[in-house]
Amino acid sequence: MASQELNSRSYILSINRSSLKPDIYTLFLNRIATTVSDPLNRKVWIFETYNDYCRKSDNYPVIVIESPSVPTNTLTFNKKRINGRIELVVYSKTKKQSDLICSQIINTILDGRSYFRKVGITEIELEDDDSDFEKINEQVGRHSGQLIFSFKYIHKIAW
């Protein structure tokens, strides 16, 4: 999947065990896509993987949301609570823009805990917040902001 935009699943009402990772990914994607504004007003600027579009600095800023890390094999009839993590990276031409977008993402995720709690995602915390600068060539540099959120998922529906 190269790029992401809101779709018919934009308002997930429940998370299914069989689609746990995609459902959690979609929750984070839609929360960010509906509350964090693209400075260039593009339809698509959030991606699931770092791809050719993300490599071109002319396309910055972009957000890459990695697939969540959740151990699906630990959900059992007796154990309905698992720990998870999701990592996001913002790539930008300037540190100021990267920091601004990261701040918007942090605020929308942490302020939106009730949005996630409705489907069993609880205890969302910012686990790590880091920034970096990489020189792509002699004239172009890239700033990045990495955010890692930890959370707990509580499966509420009986098997």
Separate helix tally: 4
**Residue share in helix:** 25-40%
What integer is the average pLDDT? Answer: 84
Amount of beta strand:
25-35%
Radius of gyration: 16 Å
Structure, explained:
- This protein has 159 residues and is of the alpha+beta class.
- The chain has one domain (17-154): Alpha-Beta Plaits.
- It is 26% helix and 30% strand.
- It is built from four helices and five strands, in the order αβαββααββ.
- It has helices at 20-35, 52-55, 95-111, 113-117, and strands spanning 46-47, 62-65, 81-92, 121-135, 141-154.
- A five-stranded mixed beta sheet has the order 1-2-3-5-4.
- It starts with 19 loop residues before the first helix and ends in a 5-residue tail after the last strand.
- The model is unreliable at 1-10 (pLDDT under 50).
Summarize the structure.
The chain contains four helices and five strands; from the N terminus they run H-E-H-E-E-H-H-E-E.
Task: Provide the descriptors you would attach to this structure in a database record.
single chain, 159 residues, alpha+beta, Alpha-Beta Plaits, five-stranded mixed β-sheet, 30% strand, disordered N terminus
Q: What's the topology here?
A:
Elements: H1 20-35, E1 46-47, H2 52-55, E2 62-65, E3 81-92, H3 95-111, H4 113-117, E4 121-135, E5 141-154
Parallel strand pairs: 1-2
Antiparallel strand pairs: 2-3, 3-5, 4-5
